[in-house]
Write a structure and sequence with these properties.
By secondary structure, the chain is mainly α. The chain has one domain. It has 6 helices and no strands. α4 packs antiparallel against α5. The longest helix has 44 residues. The relative contact order is 0.17.
Length: 219
């Protein structure tokens, strides 16, 4: 993955630079008009928000039950990316909602559970930074709790009545709307993979330096 970092980053940058023109070429949605095009950034961010939460949860489980330090580094990276992509989701959503629905925010199951998920990983990051000894295990437990919330976020629109459309809408998009969506998702995914790899590598290096300092103090 290390050798692929630069090429993947270059491809992601090129795709993100081209994305505005591709989105501009997509047709307007019949009822929402221009504002619907926020969808091409909002949806990929929301999906990667959930993916990051799952990665953090799975890697935290590996650390908690298998004492895998490399998994812990990936969990930290996943948590921080959940914060980043969750923030993009929670900002672009209300911007879209204000024009489409006439409100910035409603406490429906999808919005509330998404905010809760973001707050869980905000708590994870704070615990890991300021929690002191044992914060790695406490954080891992929080990550597992957060991951358990992901299916609830995903299926909430199918089970409860919300302003969001059901998950079955995306596969039925016409090609001239679906194409730009998958293009943007690919660009965001490549960026996500690069950031995950770089942040996990940085965390592993930080943990290694910290262990050397501890060994020197004990000596």
């Amino acid at each position: 993955m290390k050798k692929l970092t630069t090429p993947l980053l270059a491809i992601a940058a090129a795709m993100l630079a081209a994305a505005p023109w591709i989105i501009n070429a997509a047709p307007y949605e019949s009822t929402m008009g221009l504002v619907q095009k926020i969808f091409y950034f909002h949806m990929p961010s929301a999906w990667l928000f959930l993916v990051a939460a799952i990665i953090c949860g799975v890697q935290s489980a590996r650390f908690l039950f298998g004492r895998n330090q490399g998994a812990d580094a990936t969990a930290v990276a996943g948590a921080e990316l959940a914060l980043v992509f969750g923030a993009i989701t929670l900002v672009t959503g209300p911007l879209w909602a204000r024009k489409a629905w006439g409100v910035w925010w409603v406490w429906d199951p999808r919005l509330t559970s998404s905010l809760l998920l973001w707050m869980i990983f905000a708590g994870y990051v704070l615990v890991r930074k300021y929690g002191g000894p044992g914060s790695d295990r406490l954080g891992a437990g929080m990550a597992l709790f957060g991951m358990a919330n992901v299916p609830f976020v995903f299926i909430s629109v199918n089970v409860w009545r919300t302003l969001h459309p059901m998950t079955s809408v995306v596969p039925t998009l016409p090609v001239d709307m679906g194409g730009p969506l998958w293009f943007c998702l690919t660009a965001f995914l490549l960026l996500f993979l690069v950031l995950l790899n770089l942040r996990a590598r940085l965390e592993r290096q930080r943990a290694r330096v910290e262990s050397l300092f501890l060994a020197e103090d004990e000596a």
